[in-house]
UniProtKB/TrEMBL annotation:
InterPro entries in UniProt: Acyl-CoA-binding_protein (IPR000582), Acyl-CoA-binding_sf (IPR035984), FERM/acyl-CoA-bd_prot_sf (IPR014352)
GO molecular function, one term: fatty-acyl-CoA binding
Superkingdom as given in the UniProt entry: Eukaryota
Name of one Pfam family that matches: ACBP
Keyword list, A-Z: Lipid-binding
Annotated ACB domain residues: 6-99
GO biological process, one term: fatty acid metabolic process
Keyword Cell cycle: no
Protein name, as recorded: ACB domain-containing protein
Amino acid sequence: MPISELEKKWWGMNFNIAAEEMRRLKETPSEEEQLALYGLYKQALHGDIPSEDLYIRPNSDIWIQRKYDAWLAIKGKSQERAKEDYVQAAQEMIKKYGRTIVRSQWNSQVWTVDY
């Protein structure tokens, strides 16, 4: 099956690029999408969430509790798999929300942001 032009532009995106691109979305993802990305990001960087003996579940702020729960929900997923899933989710977010690309002399010479 031939690869579409849209699919071709995503080749080569890695975890670090995907994380940076999430800051450039034109619209804000839903809270559930944000939480899913957060959990994957934390799992990719740190692995499993520490036990409550070391990392107490927050109880003062509902949003922080939800972020904690998002990370806890994927406990056991390997860091490599979390990175792969994060990249896939980021690609879907870019397709869904688009992204803002700010061109400047510096980033046009150093970075290529069209994947």
